[in-house]
């Protein structure tokens, strides 16, 4: 595949900028970090309560966990249209507010009447809906905030924050439930979303970072894409995603990975409580420990972005992340549970951090800017749409087989399906900015 070099024709390229020195990026980073910690606490807390407080089955835990991803199927395309037409700041604030309000209401209900399965199910659905609105708006806005050559570095920093939140969230949720109880745990999660809302409220997303440092940009800000959504249908992004081979391969592989990961995490939750007899805090720490690896992998990808082959690094990251989970069930009869699964999550996280940096950067670089929001939503519909199936599958396998056997079956399947990426042309893309040439080969017309 011969990729067109999309470097600007100007005689001199703009000097590289230190993203940390840009006030808008600082506010974006802090607000997103608070929102992601709150979300990770919620993601782990709700199914954990099914197992520990309600003494529910693995299938019930999977149902609550999967309910947080059902809105991806229902609302992603609509959120994509909004991201192309509405200010990004408005979408981010709405998604953050919805999640904080849902957790606050659940905390109040628990303090007054106690937790119920249906309350957890409803809260999971509302939190998932808010996350769809937030994530689509946020991801669609980043390419308007960063120059193409800055996407890998910027996403590496943001993925590092996400890694820390994935590490802190489960550990924090497990310890809080164990030490201070459910109402205070939910109060803290609510407070994190309130803090994120305040940071985003002060963020002038209408001013783009892609301009020079004076703020007089030519590309426009994340909230000011006045022509972006003109004539754009809800299915436009999905058609583009499925019609562009590299983007389609990324989307399918991410979907398969998310399906297996949710299945593995649900089965591991049941395994930890009922087979390994671990406390909620220990389970949270083990899952969170894997995010140390993600943090290191994201940082390495960002630092070495200019020297590494993007496509090959992406492939190695995906296959390595899948194989990392496999060592847990393979060696479970020879190595104690805590060091074994701590190592498995660490290896999985390191490889996943590398994969995420390149995958997110490429899927932001490939779609034409005029419908980046709808393309992002179409991608997320497929890549995250299988997550609730994975949660239900993991719980069902843990009930039908032993939890340990379920982990083995899931890990083997995950590793085998990850090898499909070896047949994709995306492994030949040398630089992330080269991927933008692929977007011009599809949907050159602006009508749908």
From TrEMBL:
The chain crosses the membrane at residues 33-51, 63-83, 103-127, 180-203, 278-301, 313-332, 338-358, 379-398, 404-423. One of its GO terms (cellular component) is plasma membrane. It holds the Pfam family MFS_3. It comes from the Bacteria. Its main location: membrane. Keywords: Cell membrane, Membrane, Transmembrane, Transmembrane helix, Transport. Gene3D superfamilies: MFS general substrate transporter like domains (1.20.1250.20). PANTHER family: INTEGRAL MEMBRANE EFFLUX PROTEIN-RELATED, MAJOR FACILITATOR SUPERFAMILY ASSOCIATED DOMAIN-CONTAINING PROTEIN. This is MFS-type transporter involved in bile tolerance, Atg22 family. It comes from Streptacidiphilus jiangxiensis. The lineage of its organism: Bacteria, Bacillati, Actinomycetota, Actinomycetes, Kitasatosporales.
């Amino acid at each position: 595949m011969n990729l067109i070099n999309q470097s600007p024709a100007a005689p001199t390229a703009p000097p590289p900028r230190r993203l940390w020195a840009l006030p808008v990026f600082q506010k974006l980073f802090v607000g997103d970090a608070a929102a992601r910690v709150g979300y990770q606490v919620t993601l782990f807390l709700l199914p954990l309560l099914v197992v520990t407080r309600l003494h529910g089955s693995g299938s019930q835990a999977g149902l609550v966990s999967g309910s947080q991803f059902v809105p991806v199927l229902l609302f992603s395309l609509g959120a994509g249209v909004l991201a192309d037409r509405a200010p990004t700041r408005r979408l981010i604030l709405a998604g953050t507010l919805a999640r904080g309000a849902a957790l606050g209401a659940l905390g109040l209900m628990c303090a007054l009447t106690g937790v119920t399965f249906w309350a957890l199910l409803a809260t999971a659905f509302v939190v998932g809906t808010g996350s769809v609105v937030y994530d689509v708006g946020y991801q669609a806005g980043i390419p308007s905030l960063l120059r193409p050559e800055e996407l890998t570095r910027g996403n590496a920093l943001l993925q590092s924050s996400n890694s820390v939140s994935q590490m802190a969230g489960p550990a924090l949720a497990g310890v809080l439930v164990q030490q201070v109880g459910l109402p205070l745990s939910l109060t803290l999660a609510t407070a994190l979303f309130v803090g994120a809302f305040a940071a985003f409220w002060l963020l002038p997303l209408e001013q783009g970072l892609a301009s020079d440092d004076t703020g007089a940009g030519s590309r426009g800000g994340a909230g000011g894409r006045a022509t972006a959504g003109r004539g754009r249908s809800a299915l436009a992004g999905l058609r583009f995603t499925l019609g562009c081979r590299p983007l389609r391969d990324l989307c399918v592989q991410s979907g398969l990975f998310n399906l297996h990961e949710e299945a593995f995490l649900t089965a591991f939750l049941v395994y930890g409580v009922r087979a390994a007899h671990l406390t909620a805090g220990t389970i949270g720490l083990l899952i969170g420990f894997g995010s140390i690896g993600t943090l290191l992998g994201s940082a390495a990808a960002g630092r070495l972005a200019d020297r590494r082959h993007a496509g090959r690094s992406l492939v190695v990251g995906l296959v390595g992340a899948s194989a990392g989970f496999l060592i847990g069930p393979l060696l479970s009869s020879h190595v104690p549970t805590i060091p074994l699964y701590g190592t498995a999550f660490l290896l999985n996280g390191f490889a996943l951090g590398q994969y995420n940096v390149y995958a997110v950067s490429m899927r932001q670089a490939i779609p034409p800017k005029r419908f980046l929001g709808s393309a992002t939503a179409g991608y997320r519909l497929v890549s995250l749409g299988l997550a609730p199936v994975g949660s239900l599958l993991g719980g069902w396998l843990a009930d039908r087989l032993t939890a340990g056997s379920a982990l083995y079956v899931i890990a083997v399947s995950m590793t085998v399906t990850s090898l499909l990426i070896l047949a994709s042309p995306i492994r030949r893309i040398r630089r992330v900015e080269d991927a933008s040439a692929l977007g011009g080969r599809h949907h050159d017309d602006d009508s749908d």
